[in-house]
Write a structure and sequence with these properties.
The chain has two domains: about 1-45 and about 95-205, Ribosomal protein L4/L1 (Ribosomal Protein L4, Chain: A), CATH 3.40.1370; about 50-90, no CATH class. The chain has seven helices and six strands, in the order E-E-H-H-H-E-H-E-H-E-H-E-H. It has helices spanning about 20-25, 30-45, 100-120, 135-145, 160-165, 180-185, 195-205, and strands at about 1-5, 10-15, 120-125, 150-155, 170-175, 190-195. The chain is elongated, with a radius of gyration of 27 Å.
Length: about 210
């Protein structure tokens, strides 16, 4: 399909052919949900840990004799029901990651791109270059275009000047094409791709 190409001031400078099998696929919320769960689970550190009965410090002796005290019988001072005792079924260090087929992951990225196109929140720019390095100018330009929550995706490498210009702006993210992912795309309202990013993404998802 044909899609207009604009500059960062939102002026049309041309058009580009987008592949229908990537930017026009059916939007599958179930696929997007599975992919976001996979990404967030994979990103968890899993370093939570509590001490069980065998981990807490303390003696193996009985706290008091078995009979004659009028109290409930106790076998050790490290028991979970004792003050300072171990935790029962507490979290342990582990990986939260789970498997998701590569085909599903590629379909999820296609679906995320298609969802932005269907919503009208996909913008293709000629290149990520404002012709300056003033954050104030960039902020005014984004506000003028109503680009409040935005993800910029560039080609093989992000222009360093552009990255410095936008890094202090709230709700603005910048990624190279190899870092494009479903979660980052969905968490921002507007997706801006450079022409170079489109070429790389189409090659990656073909």
């Amino acid at each position: 399909m044909k899609w207009p190409v604009v500059d960062l001031k939102n002026k049309v400078v041309g058009e580009i052919d987008l592949r229908d099998d990537i930017f026009c696929v059916d939007v599958r919320p179930d696929i997007l949900h599975s992919m976001v769960r996979w990404q967030l689970a994979k990103a968890r550190q899993g370093t939570h840990q509590t001490k069980g009965v065998s981990d807490v410090s303390g003696s193996t002796r009985k706290p008091f004799k078995q009979k004659g005290t009028g109290r409930a019988r106790q076998g050790r001072i490290r028991a979970p029901n004792m003050r300072g005792g171990g935790i029962v079924f507490g979290p342990v260090t582990r990986s939260h990651a789970f498997d998701l087929p590569k085909k599903v992951r590629k379909l999820a990225l296609r679906t995320a791109l298609a969802a932005k196109a269907a919503e009208g929140n996909l913008i293709i720019v000629d290149k990520l270059d404002m012709g300056g390095n003033k954050t104030k100018d960039m902020s005014q330009s984004l506000s003028k275009n109503a680009w409040n929550s935005i993800l910029f995706i560039d080609g093989q490498a992000v222009d360093e000047t552009f990255a410095r210009t936008v890094r202090n702006l709230p709700e603005v993210d910048v990624l190279p094409q190899q870092g494009a992912n479903v979660y980052s795309i969905l968490r921002r309202k507007t997706l801006v791709l450079s022409k170079d990013a489109v070429l790389h993404l189409e090659a990656r998802l073909s």
